[in-house]
Structure formats: structure tokens, C-alpha cells
């Protein structure tokens, strides 16, 4: 009789232990899983998804093109479950990188999130097409003042800006024609001639020690590695004005200014 009671009590204790183990396992596994599922549903909730993109600063690039690229970036999921359009998980740096790589004209992209309006603000800065770079004047590209070739352009519509040539091989897009310092040196040469009344139409870099700048009355040969091209231009202007003052009908074949203060020229 005593053994029977002992066995029943032992059985009840065993069942209680099993229940406790089950409840403990449920709380250890079930609750985290439930929390994770609820979190995923929350992150996928409509009120946390990007709805619109506001583009600020666009001048040449079509706003719709930037919007479409940004919207395509938000399609699909990351980590297999979380939408890329989720405001919290939207990768601002990666979105900016995608836009910069797709649109060569873009110089800067700033991404700002607005959680209350479910809106993403894209502030952009476009590169200025200060110059052209052309391949034998049959295929042309826009180039910034810093020397970056960034967009294809019609060779038939290149009037009004200086055309650069040479140096680059293959596809020139997103390549640097020259360093910003060299481009500033070229700009100084262009400025001096312009102030003297001579518009530079093109500059072609033929080799490391020879470049040709074309103005209306003459081709000017100069050294592209010269540190002070504004001084070179000033000396050429002095020579032209001096010869023209003696004979206004003087016409030049070329002017070679590669030898410091010594300038060689040939007349027709």
C-alpha cells in the first residue's frame, strides 16, 4: 500500500517536471520566435515603407530618371525578409553610390529620410559641362573644369566651349583628362587669350611636351607640362600685338612657345 502511494506521488512529480520543462522550452524558444515574427511583420508594415522620393537640385538630369532609379533600388528584400524600402533599413550610402555610378553628371548626392511623411529627400549637385573632350571631332563628351569626362555629347553641337583632345584611350567616360591643377593651368592660358580678344577653340595634347591651342589667327604650340601657362599666353599675345602693330595684315603659320621666353614663329 505504501509503495503504491509512493509510485503515484513520484508519477505526479515527474509529470510536473515535464510540464515545467515544456513551459521553460516554450518560453526559451517560442517567445523569441513569436517576437521575431511580430518584428518582421512590423518591419514589413506599409507605414514604414518609402513612398516617394523628392529630388532637389536637378537642372539637366530628368527628375523622373532619378526617381525611377531610386525606386528600383528599393525593390526586393534584404536578409530575405526585410523590404529594401523600409525606412529604417534603407542604406543611404549605397543608394547614393548607385545614383552616382548611373548618372555621370552627378557630382554629389545627399540622402535624407523623413519618417513621418515616408519620404526620401535626394539633394543632388550636378557637374558643370565647362569643356568638351572630343575624339578627332567625331565623337564628343562633356568634361568638367576638373578634367573629368562624364557624358557623351553630339559632336555637331560643340560650339561655345573649348574642345580638348588627346591623352585618353578607349572609353573616356568617367576618366580624368588631367589633374585639377593642370586643368586650372589650361584655364589660365584660355583666360589670358580671351582677355586679349583671342578665343581659344581647341587644345590638343599631342605628347608629353607638345600641345596645340587653336585661336582664330594661328595655331599656338606650347608645352603642356609648363607650370605657368598664363605667362606663356601673355608672351604670345605680346608677340602677336607687336607684329600686328608693324603690319596689320601679318598672317601666321604657327607660333611655337615651348622654349621658355624664346618664341619661334613662321609667317605666311
Plain-language structure description:
The protein is α/β, with parallel strands linked by helices and 268 residues long. It folds into 3 domains: 1-43; 49-126, membrane protein fhac (Ubiquitin-like (UB roll)), CATH 3.10.20.310; 131-267, 3-Layer(aba) Sandwich (Rossmann fold). It contains 5 helices and 15 strands. The protein has helices spanning 2-43, 63-73, 92-102, 180-195, 229-246, and strands at residues 52-56, 77-78, 82-83, 106-114, 119-126, 131-135, 139-143, 148-153, 163-166, 175-176, 200-207, 210-215, 218-222, 252-259, 262-267. A 10-stranded mixed β-sheet has the order 10-8-7-6-9-11-12-13-14-15, with helices on one face. Strands 1-5-4 form a 3-stranded mixed β-sheet, with helices on one face. The protein has a two-stranded antiparallel sheet with strand order 2-3. A hairpin with a 2-residue loop joins strand 14 and strand 15 (262-267). Helix 4 packs parallel to helix 5 (229-246). It is rod-shaped and about 125 Å long. It starts with a helix and ends with a strand. The mean pLDDT is 87. Keywords: Membrane, Transmembrane, Transmembrane helix. The chain crosses the membrane at residues 21-43. This is POTRA domain-containing protein.
Amino acid at each position: 500500500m505504501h509503495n503504491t502511494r509512493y509510485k503515484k506521488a513520484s508519477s505526479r512529480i515527474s509529470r510536473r517536471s515535464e510540464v515545467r520543462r515544456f513551459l521553460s522550452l516554450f518560453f526559451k524558444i517560442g517567445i523569441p520566435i513569436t517576437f521575431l515574427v511580430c518584428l518582421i511583420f512590423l518591419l514589413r508594415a506599409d507605414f514604414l515603407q518609402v513612398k516617394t522620393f523628392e529630388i532637389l537640385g536637378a537642372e539637366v538630369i530628368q527628375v523622373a530618371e532619378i526617381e525611377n532609379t531610386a525606386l528600383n533600388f528599393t525593390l526586393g528584400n534584404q536578409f530575405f525578409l526585410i523590404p529594401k524600402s523600409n525606412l529604417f533599413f534603407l542604406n543611404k550610402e549605397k543608394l547614393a553610390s548607385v545614383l552616382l555610378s548611373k548618372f555621370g553628371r552627378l557630382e554629389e548626392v545627399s540622402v535624407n529620410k523623413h519618417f513621418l511623411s515616408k519620404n526620401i529627400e535626394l539633394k543632388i549637385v550636378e557637374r558643370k559641362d565647362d569643356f568638351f573632350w572630343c575624339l578627332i571631332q567625331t565623337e564628343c563628351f562633356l568634361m568638367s573644369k576638373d578634367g573629368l569626362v562624364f557624358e557623351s555629347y553630339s559632336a555637331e553641337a560643340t560650339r561655345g566651349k573649348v574642345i580638348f583632345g588627346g591623352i585618353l584611350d578607349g572609353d573616356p567616360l568617367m576618366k580624368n583628362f588631367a589633374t585639377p591643377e593642370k586643368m586650372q593651368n589650361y584655364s589660365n592660358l584660355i583666360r589670358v587669350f580671351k582677355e586679349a580678344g583671342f578665343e581659344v577653340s581647341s587644345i590638343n595634347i599631342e605628347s608629353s611636351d607638345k600641345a596645340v591651342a587653336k585661336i582664330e589667327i594661328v595655331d599656338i604650340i606650347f608645352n603642356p607640362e609648363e607650370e605657368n601657362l598664363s605667362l606663356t599666353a601673355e608672351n604670345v599675345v605680346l608677340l602677336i600685338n607687336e607684329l600686328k602693330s608693324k603690319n596689320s595684315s601679318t598672317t601666321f603659320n604657327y607660333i611655337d612657345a615651348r622654349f621658355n621666353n624664346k618664341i619661334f614663329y613662321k609667317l605666311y
